[in-house]
Amino acid sequence: MTAHRTVLFWFRRDLRLHDQGALAAALGSGTTHLVPVHCQPPAGETTPWGFARRGLHRRAFEGAALRDLATGMARLGNPLLQCQGLPAAVLPALASAMGATTVVCEEIAAPHEQAEVAALRAAGLQVQTVWHSSLLQPCDLPWPVGDLAGVFTTFRQAVEQAGIQPPQPLPAPAALLPPPAALTDAVWQEVLHTAGAVGAAQGQGGHRDEVGEGAGCDVRSSFPYGTPACDGGETAALAHVQQYLASGQAHTYKATRNGLTGLGYSSKFSPWLATGALSARHAMAALRRFESTHGANEGTYWLWFELLWRDYFRLLHLQHGRTLYRARGLSAQPLAPHNAPGFARWCAGDTGQPLVDAALRELAATGYLSNRLRQVAASYLIHELQGDWRAGAAWFESQLVDYDPYSNQGNWLYIAGRGTDPRGGRRFNPAKQTQDHDADGSYRRLWGTA
Prior knowledge:
Blueprint: E1 5-11, H1 21-27, E2 31-40, H2 56-75, E3 81-84, H3 87-98, E4 102-106, H4 111-122, E5 126-130, H5 152-162, H6 185-195, E6 198-199, H7 234-246, H8 253-256, H9 270-275, H10 280-294, H11 298-320, H12 340-347, H13 354-366, H14 371-384, H15 389-399, H16 405-416, H17 430-437, H18 442-446
Parallel strand pairs: 1-2, 1-4, 2-3, 4-5
Antiparallel strand pairs: 3-6
Helix pairs in contact: 3-4, 3-6, 7-10, 11-16, 13-14, 14-16, 15-16
């Protein structure tokens, strides 16, 4: 970057100030003024399957993350600009108004997000992307990304045998560069008008989705995001990591992780990791400190194991890109015709299979679902109903508060047998899963299917 210029910093799926490698890049190299901005997708954006791409729960949880981020930015003296509109329209208009030519943002290796960056470059902006969502740095691996092992176990063993560890997380900045004097409320409103976007005056919280009172407070929820402890922001995320480890639950993680109800059966890091309100490296560094004081065991190892799975799905995107989004995925097998009526019943939790229906009702009511039940529900759609796996992936994208493009796509491909799984897919027997995980019927009764 050359000196004496204004840089736009575009927050994407990294809604935090700690361990912010992209923000650190924007603050360096001679930048004198910083314009931080976040663009929510336009209202009414739908999937090819006819439902909202971002449902109520996702919007509410991400909205809370943005409110907390905006508070932190204001405390550092540079307000976060928020709007509802296409980045390809908003950011060029904002750059023009500020006399800027450069945007710095997180690198996201998924097709929709790659297209957003391509549109900015086509509009004449210089876009510097920074990869910082994974635990391990791709450049620290003992092989090029293109040579990534086709099986997770091989990848994990190679990482562990090489002794590769994640970088230490960056501290949150103590100060931010100021916005340019030209960035007044009147100028911001003119930018929004030019871009056909919706927003609010600086310092007034930006655009907020109307998601209704009480969203996220269902007493049955295993992740009640409408409560202070599960608020979507970075502040709650950091507090949760501290509380989870202080409680000693990391030691029992492997034994309890297949639970179906309650806050404590799993780490619940995933919602904050998904929005970027929590850095994986921060969580791992905190876990290592816990192990150094209280000892490591199978439970703490399994948290590392799951974070490596998260990295593996990211690296698969760097290796295969949009090929992962083809109907047949990485498989040579064609896709069977989609069962649209069966998919509709599945979404509504009305298939007649009690455990699957309970799971889909929980998802619709709360925006959350245990990992075990995600696998069972996905398997049922793909293997019993012959539904298109991409439709199921889109429904999870719409509903889950912890939607992550990498893990969501990777897991659906894994169940469908169209990813790298050597077993050619995973089929879960609902009757066996019910006996193993809900033998007393308590979960099915909770969601009215027993």
